[in-house]
Amino acid sequence: MNEEPAMFGSKPAVRPEHRREAVPRVQGSRKFTVGARNEQEISELEPEWAEFCDIRYAVAVNSGIAALELALTTLGIQPGDEVIVPALSHVATAMAPLYQPAVPVFADIGPVSWCRPDCRPRARWSR
């Protein structure tokens, strides 16, 4: 993994030959989910993105909470299951399990790494 992000001069994670045209087309169409009227670009983006990620399916959603809900459903989270969520996050992180309806269980995070309290950061980004 790069020590610095590409915006600070490191090599980009996605090589130019792997960049797709569908994302700019979708952004230009201003139709971002399957529910949009005449959403041809989304229908083309989903299989293209799935191929890029080397997975069978990709689904465009309209928000982060919808993505979290879909992920929990895909994982088979059932009513009453406990889902560990970070204590310091957007409210959607804890709300998504409630839609299952599962039980969000808050976990503390480390003040430096933003991960487990005992986790040490590997590298720091600097300009």
| Domains, number | 2
Radius of gyration computed on alpha carbons: 18 Å
Class based on secondary structure composition and strand pairing:
mainly alpha
Secondary-structure element order, N to C: HHHEHE
The percentage helix is: 25-40%
Runs in which pLDDT lies below 50 for 5 or more consecutive residues are none
Q: How much strand?
A: 5-15%
For the report, how would you describe the main beta sheet? 2 strands, parallel
Overall average residue pLDDT: 76
Number of helices: 4
End-to-end separation: 17 Å
Strand order of the largest sheet: 1-2
How would you sum up the global shape? globular
Tell how many strands the DSSP assignment holds: 2
Which key phrases capture this entry?
127 residues, 2 domains, two-stranded parallel sheet, 4 helices, 8% strand, DegT/DnrJ/EryC1/StrS family aminotransferase, PyrdxlP-dep_Trfase, transferase, aminotransferase
